[in-house]
Amino acid sequence: MKLDERDFRRFDGKFYPQVPTDLIVDCFGHKQVHFRQTHGHGAFVYLNAKRRQFLHAQQYSDSFDLVAWVRQHQAQLSLLITETPIPELKDELPQFIVPNAWEFYKAAASYSRQLYDGNVIAITGSVGKSTTRLMTVELLRALKRHVNTNIGNENVRQVVIPLLATTLQNPDDLVAEISINALNNRDGRQGVTARYYAADAAIITQVGGAHLAELSNVDDPLMFLAERKSRIFDEMPATGRAILNYDMEPRVYRYLVDVAHQHTDHLYAYSYADQHADAYVVKTEDFRDHTAVTMAILGETVTANLSMPGKGVILDLLAACLTLKSLGLPLPDVTNLFMNFEALNSELKFYEIPTSHGKVTIVDDTHGSTLHSVNNVISVFKARGQFYAGQKVLVMETGEDLGEDAAAYNLRFKDPLLTSHVDALIGYRDDAIKPLVDAVQPQLKTGFYQELAPVQAAIDDLPNDSLVIIKSSDGRKYGSDLWTLPEKLLHATSEV
Description:
The chain is an alpha/beta fold. The chain has helices at about 50-55, 65-70, 100-115, 130-140, 155-165, 220-230, 250-260, 310-325, 370-385, 405-410, 415-420, 435-440, 450-460, 475-480, 485-495, and strands at about 15, 25-30, 40-45, 75-80, 95, 120-125, 145-150, 175, 200-205, 240-245, 265-270, 280-285, 290-295, 300-305, 350-355, 360-365, 390-395, 425-430, 445-450, 465-470.
């Protein structure tokens, strides 16, 4: 799909210096990366300092020169959207002058959505949304379908608009990951930004286990989050599909069902074990390097080998497969499709390193730490720990966003840890993890350190064929340095 000068009549603005007669626009964006697939027909939306402040987006550097930037990237552009005419460029690039660039951006994306007749699949949740998105994309591309999706894990409200505008490229499917930021009502009476997706299929992977600190003044944080997540159904057509995790807290699941029913009658549920769901696990068989999972998906039985461990990734795959089937699409051969699957960033990545007593397998899970993701790590020990002859060790700190009740939340892991085949727990840095370390004694070996050096030394002293999972918050956001430990261990290995 392409827009020309006639399409711009519906928008609040005017061309400068005159109406172009041969305009073609097939892409809108406000960053260079948004134009990587365009061929000279991109429209650059200049969000000035005022608009960026409104969006809580990063400001341009003091050295940024709009004229120089446009000239540098002019081969990718056919139009400049700005609130103030740029006389220096009047003979080089057509301009469309608007009163509010953010409002124009939303209007352009909304118009693109109206023209688009492919599938929009939207995904949100407190945990698992990125992996579910990536697996959904993998399944669709295995069917030879053209799929657009988020860049990296960008999922906040200012991402919604340029991503939705990529429907001008007429992909078969748009798969969009949505954070709570895009589901908060920050655009006043116009509602949440994510509503512009008007999703044909909307997945909620989980509610709760994150954002607890910032909700400390809310009477019922879980239901507060459920209401926010339910906004993914806003503007869903009556033909839309709502895909829900049946294993959520029952009252949360019932609430989401009620909200979804206000928009569509097409509700589907997936579950790890409950066979009343539309998709569920029939059986699993664990091996050292993968798990074979047999699933029932709307009456179809399929088996997939997953190199990525844990219950969480199995639930994510169930959601992805159920979504395709609910939309009337066939499933590709999934037998080995996810044998080398990797999630974003540092999520359950395996490394083997030499140590003083042989070799140790390090699992880097330092991208983030919620209550659900810690439980997932514990499930990894249960599934894969039996295949390691050495010690099974969990190195962890308190998850992000847990607030004043962090120590109490951490103590919930005591019983799961004691039945997980974990041999040792090493707590790191913060006082809120220390009560859990004390609580699992003497059943588990323990340690508590506030510096990385003794943690690194303890790992180096482990017996051959040990398994170590490092679970931390994203220190790049929350201040801890535990996320750097896997890199330090690998760097030390390279120097040996």
